[in-house]
Design a protein that fits this description.
It is a single chain. This protein is mainly alpha-helical. It has one domain (about 5-205, about 215-395): Growth Hormone, Chain: A (Up-down Bundle), CATH 1.20.1250. Helix content is about 80%, strand content about 0%. It contains 17 helices and two strands. The chain has helices at about 5-15, 15-35, 40-50, 50-65, 70-80, 80-100, 105-135, 135-145, 150-170, 170-195, 220-240, 245-250, 255-260, 265-285, 285-305, 310-335, 345-395; strands at about 400, 400-405. It has a two-stranded antiparallel sheet with strand order 1-2. A hairpin with a 2-residue loop joins strand 1 (about 400) and strand 2. The longest helix has about 55 residues, at about 345-395.
Length: about 400
Amino acid sequence: MNSGASDAARPERADSPRTLGVILLARIALNLQFRVVYPFLPAISRGLGIPLETAGLLLAVRSLVSMGSPLYGALADRRGRRPVMLAGLVALIAGALAVGMAPGLIVALAAFALLGFSKAAYDPAAQAYLGDAVPYERRGRVLGIIELSWSLSWFIGVPVAGFLIAARGWRSVFWFIAGLGAVALLASWRLCRECGRGPANRPAAPPAAWTWRLPVWATPTMFLVLAVSFLLILANELVFIVYGVWLETNFGLSVVAVGVASLVISVAELLAETASAGTVDRLGKRRAVLGGLILHLLSYLLLPRLAGTLGGALTGVFLMFLTFEFTVVAIIPLVSELAPEARGTVLALNLAVMALGRVIGALAGPRLWTAGGLTANALMAAGLLGVALLIWWLGVRERAEDPLTFRPDT
C-alpha cells in the first residue's frame, strides 16, 4: 500500500478500537513514569540519599525538558506523527532503565530528563494524529477516551508500585515501567507502520523563522488558553507534590498504604475522564471548562477543612482530582482546533506551558509545605485558580453560530 493510500485510510482507522487501544497502552506507560513519583517521592529521596526538597529537582528537570515540546510538535507537523511518537517511547524505555540504575542524583537527573522528553514528544504527536482524523464535533469523546490513561496508570501503577517498593525497593518500579514501555513500543511500531510514514494529512504552516508574518497560532485566544492551562497545572502541582509526604506525616501511612489510598485518585480521574468523554462535546468546550474551573476552585477551599481525618482527607483529594481531571481533559480538544494548520505545534505549546507550571510547582510546593503545611499549598492553589477563572470567563468567547468553537481572532 502506498503512502497516499495509507493517509487516505487514516481517518477511518483513527478512532477504531484497535488504534485507540494501542495509543491508550502507550499513554499508560508514559503516564505511569510521570505519576508514580508523586506519592513515593519520600521513598525515592531516601533511596538516593537526598532531602525531599532536593528530590523536587528531579520533577523540575523532567518538566523543564518537557518545555521543549513545541520543537517536537513542529517536527511532527513537518515530518509526520510516526517518528516523533516512536522516539518518545524509546526515550521512555531508556530513561526508566537509567533511573533504575542511577547511583546518585546526577544520573537520576539525566534519566528524568529523558523521561521528560518521552512524554513531551509522544503526547502532542498522538493528539495531533487523532485531531487530524476525527471531526471536531466528536473529538472530545475520542480524546477523552485516550485521557483515560491518566486514571488507568494511577489505578494500575501506583498500587503495584507500592508493593514493588516494599518488596524489591524503589528502583524496581522503573524496571517495571521500562518493560511496559517496550510492549507499548512494539504495539505502536506495528500500528504506525500500517498508518503510513508520511506527514499528517493537513499541511503545516512554515516555521516563523522562514517568514516575516507571525505564526498562525499567535492569536489572543491562544495566549489566553495557554495562560489558563499554566495556572491550572501550577495550582494542582502545588498540592500534588506534597501529597505523599502529607499522608505519611499526618496519618502515618506506609508506602504500601499510600499506594492503596491513592486508588481514590484513580477512581476520581476515571469518573472525570468518562464524564468528559461523554459530555464535553454536548456542553460545548468553553462551557465545560468554565464549570470545571469553578468546581476545582471550590475543591481547594474545601481541602484544608476536610484534612482532619484520613476519611475526610481522601474525600478532599477525590473532589480535587475529579474536578481537575475533568477540566484539563476538556481543554485538550478545544486546543486541537485553535490552529489546525499547526496542530502538533499548538498541542505541544499547551504541553509546554503545563510543564512550566509543574516546574514552578515542584520547586515551590515543598517550600510552601514547610512554611505552612497543607493549608498554605491549598490556599495558594485556590488563588491561582481564581485568576484562571477570571481569564476564562472574561477573555474567552464562543461564536454564536457554532457553540463548539472559539471566536476567530484577527
